[in-house]
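Human: If only I could read backbone structure tokens as easily as an amino acid sequence. Take your time, and here it is.
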Amino acid sequence: MQQFEIQFDGVALRRRMWEIIPGLLSWSTLIGLGLLAFAIPYWIAIFVIAYDVYLLVRIVYMSVHLLYAYRRLNEYKHVDWIRKLQEEKADMDWNKIQHIIVIPTYDESLHVLRTSISALAKTDFPHDRMHVVIGFEDRAGESAKKRAAALKKQFGTTFGTFITSFHPDGIPGEKKVKSANATWAIQQMEESLKKKRIKDEYILVSNFDSDTVVSAEYFSYLTYAFLHAENPYQASYQPIPVYNNNLWDAPSFSRVIAMGSTFWQMIESTRPERLVTFSSHSMTLVALKKVGYWQRDVISEDSRIFWQCLLTHNGNYRTVPLYITVSMDAALAPSWWKTLMNQYKQKRRWAWGIENFPFLMEGFIKNKKIPLSTKWTYTWRTLEGHYSWATAAIIVAVLGWIPVLFGNPSFHETFLSYSLPFMTRTLMTIAMSGLIISATLTILLLPHKPKHYGPWRYALIILQWALVPLIATLLSAFPALDSETRLMLGRDLNFNVMQKTRKRVTRKGIETV
């Protein structure tokens, strides 16, 4: 018993170390560079210039990938996936493929849920092979039961199976998170499908946010990608998330964050060796059951499920990019201030994916079958990605001014002291020219303009990209640093359900739903 306790303490201590490392690196960098800017301003000025050059090169590199992703997205939009399924032979008959769609929800409005399910009903995949479960939380009370009844009445006969489930509150080992609801919901669906005797090998599972509106060809494309993938049971399938449901109505900072997230996912799609599942995605039921479903005590279940599969399959698991969109809601609440707070919390929740770092490190230590190169690659990408997220914008916005404002007299006598602001401003201006691509793609990816907005709205959407330096610091770097600090201090993060508000035109005018 004593030996076990010592071993347990050792594992706990090691895990605590993994939790501390990301925050420690970020804070050490920011505090260390800040102090050095006072002590050795000349060398910090050189570092700032070099760092700006590095960011410029990186922006050019990512812009090329972004344009390539948009080209692929535009190409695949015109593909008739049903015809390809009918004409091209695969190892498995596409007519055997079934889809389970899991939609966990807590307090989303009936309008939001109806919009999402209606989109499923408009897809071109045979509806008798689509099985939809809407996962409500039991603690949502009577209002959830009324919404469930209304949905069953409207969509009960639209699909091969349509059920609603109610996830009980207070199950031991669970937290109040989406993953617990999703796991409960799919298990209820499996019970409902038993009588149909569908083999697990033929089932694909899509775990969607409650506001997800799929493209009409989504499931036919997903089926094609699965049937033609190498080792299809060792892969997840990731569409491109856009936030078009209410993007026209959202404030500028919310639109920039939403489109920035879309652009990042587009860039990652062109580098599938880096791609990790995010938000709404799909995978096989075989892979999902092999890892014991979504872990019921984590917030970032969308990325955690990828890491679960990677560790289970000894590093031989990947994410296949799907060049098709799924549309969701941008942060939008009844008031501007509430929207700002929701946006910060949403970004912090996304950054809370750093909770996967200790899980991944412990998994790498325990699994000796994963190649060392794979372990090193994923360790570096995970740590570097979150580190840059929390520090890059702050370094650019703040650090470059410290030597100029607070440098010693000898530094102010140098040519570098006078040229630093000019050089930094010039490099960042060149880098900001990359935002022309972002502004252009934003217009191209926008849904049709609502009638109650005039043409001036397009100008506002283009000009909003001038806010990027401020938004990147306040609504991206700060939330990321917040998450890393919480993990470092051993403070948990509660799952915040982002309020999903939309505006629609009625006879009475514009109303919020």
